[in-house]
Design goal:
Bound molecules: adenosine-5'-triphosphate, magnesium ion
Strand content: 5-15%
Structural class: alpha+beta
Helix content: 55-70%
């Protein structure tokens, strides 16, 4: 029995004792009033139905013991019936009113306590600097208030199948709502599982229990738990969003800093490189000394290499940024190949390059600077990783409406296992890895960025870039653009 039931019983016993003691000393009317007083006081600690029942029993006993003729339920119709009827009516009414008043007062104090809890939980969650801290704070407070085990799963986190709450958690996922005692769904569970929703988004799941004491659910009905769960979800979501926004802001700042640095490097490196190349080239023309010529050739080669590394790095970093500006235009494939071949032949006058470029190819919608850089890197690789007496090919064709570039060489080839990996930045198949030393010198110079940049450029154009082994030895690197609807030339009106 609960404390309040004991209190009510005590009041009834005292009342009965007092009535029995005073019987004979005071009138029946006074005894009846004492009964009303006792019933009023006791009903404060009882439920409405129990106190109405107790009042009725008390009036019956009053009748049995005190109303003449005693020890019968008979009443003198003219005198005592009215008294008993008034007694029964008054005590029943007062009992009902008192217990309603008590319930109201209890509700009020429970509301105040819930408001205080919400306020305390909200302020603890607001002051947490990380989601982990928030989860910990929510866990501690709820455990303190309910005395039950508290579990929170955020995002896609889930309990292990052997976890005692696994079945309850799974039921809540399937139902898309709260499950457990008082929810009308899976009421046989010994835990209450509530989804954590911020707006319409489910950001996790919250569980109270398991517990074997079914009584606690009277103190923790679903509405009360749901209000707390809603607050937790809102606060966790608010912090998650603000952390994400701050991260995005930091990223943007870092990107801006990087862009500024890149702009500075691109200007500061390229300008002196161009000056060195210009000066060395003019010395080459004006000097006949063989030793000086050799030195100048080395200077030009190294400068060229440095220039290439700088522009690959810059372009790679530029494409890596989210809003890299691409300058698309309609370009003739022949012209693009012409630019690539001219610069390659200037750099490698000793090498033989075979170009097969049909004249009737469709125009390409692309960023010409990037596509030239891509082809230039492919041809540079083909030259670098094949013996100098071998021909390197640049073949273009139309296949299924798509323009496809093939860069072919008769070099050392790329092992099968490396055909994807070489597209990763800074991945290189070093000559010693393949036990081949014939091209060691030229193959050693490189950063492993060329093909990574080629792939980034191809992706930016929605084009496909892949490696095939060439029949008879060597490598073919293929670049295939998607088929594009050609621009229609404006029709001039004839007047
Ligand atoms: P760089 O940054 O100067 O271009 P790199 O040429 O080493 O340096 P990538 O162009 O990315 O870098 O090439 C990656 C690796 O793939 C090379 O180190 C080379 O081992 C291999 N590779 C690329 N093209 C060929 C080819 N045509 N034949 C054989 N191996 C190749
Ligand atoms: Mg390369």
């Amino acid at each position: 029995m609960s404390t309040s039931s004991w209190l009510a019983l005590l009041i009834w016993v005292i009342t009965a004792g007092a009535i029995v003691t005073l019987d004979g000393w005071v009138t029946l009317g006074n005894l009846a009033l004492m009964l009303v007083l006792g019933s009023t006081l006791a009903s404060y600690w009882m439920t409405a139905s129990a106190s109405v029942l107790a009042s009725a029993v008390a009036v019956a006993l009053f009748n049995w013991f005190l109303v003449t003729p005693r020890y019968t339920f008979h009443v003198q119709l003219d005198q005592d019936l009215l008294l008993l009827a008034t007694l029964l009516g008054t005590s029943t009414l007062i009992s009902m009113l008192t217990s309603r008043l008590r319930r109201h007062a209890q509700d009020q104090s429970e509301h105040a306590r819930q408001a205080e809890r919400l306020q305390q939980l909200g302020s603890r969650l607001q002051h947490a600097s990380s989601v982990i801290e928030q989860v910990q704070a929510a866990h501690d407070l709820l455990h303190e208030w309910t005395g039950m085990p508290v579990t929170l799963w955020l995002g896609h986190a889930a309990p292990e199948p052997i976890h005692s709450l696994y079945r309850a958690w799974q039921a809540s996922q399937q139902e898309q709502g709260a499950v457990g005692p008082g929810t009308g769904r899976h009421a046989d569970l010994n835990a209450l599982v509530v989804p954590l929703r911020a707006g319409v988004m489910r950001i996790g799941t919250f569980a109270l229990g398991p517990t074997d004491n079914g009584e606690v659910w009277n103190r923790w009905p679903i509405e009360r738990v749901q209000a707390l769960a809603r607050l937790i979800a809102d606060e966790v979501h608010r912090l998650q969003s603000s952390l994400q926004a701050r991260e995005a802001q930091d990223r943007l700042q870092a990107q801006q800093l990087r862009n500024t640095l890149l702009a500075a490097i691109s200007h500061d490196y390229r300008t002196p490189l161009a000056t060195i190349t210009g000066a060395a080239s003019s010395l080459q023309v004006n000097n006949n000394d063989a030793g000086v010529q050799t030195a100048l050739r080395t200077i030009l080669e190294e400068t060229e290499h440095l220039h290439r590394m700088t522009s690959n790095t810059l372009q790679m970093a530029r494409l890596d940024t989210l809003e890299a500006p691409l300058h698309f235009s309609w370009e003739s494939v022949e012209e693009l190949c012409g630019v690539v071949l001219a610069s390659t032949r200037r750099r490698h006058p000793e090498r033989q390059i075979e170009a097969i470029v049909p004249t009737d190819l469709p125009l390409l919608h692309c960023d010409p600077v990037l596509v030239v850089q891509l082809l230039d890197n492919l041809i540079e690789n083909a030259l670098r990783y094949s013996p100098s007496h071998q021909i390197v090919g640049l073949h273009v064709r139309l296949e299924d409406g798509c323009v496809q570039f093939d860069v072919l060489d008769r070099g050392i080839g790329i092992p099968d296992a490396w055909r994807d990996k070489v597209f990763d930045p800074f991945r290189r198949v070093l000559p010693e890895m393949r036990g081949d030393t014939s091209f060691a010198d030229s193959a050693r110079r490189g950063m492993g960025l060329g093909l990574a940049l080629c792939r980034a450029i191809a992706n930016a154009h929605h084009a496909r870039l892949w490696i095939e082994a060439r029949e008879g030895g060597g490598t073919v690197i293929c670049l295939r653009f998607t088929s594009q609807e050609q621009p229609t030339a404006p029709v001039e009106e004839i007047e």
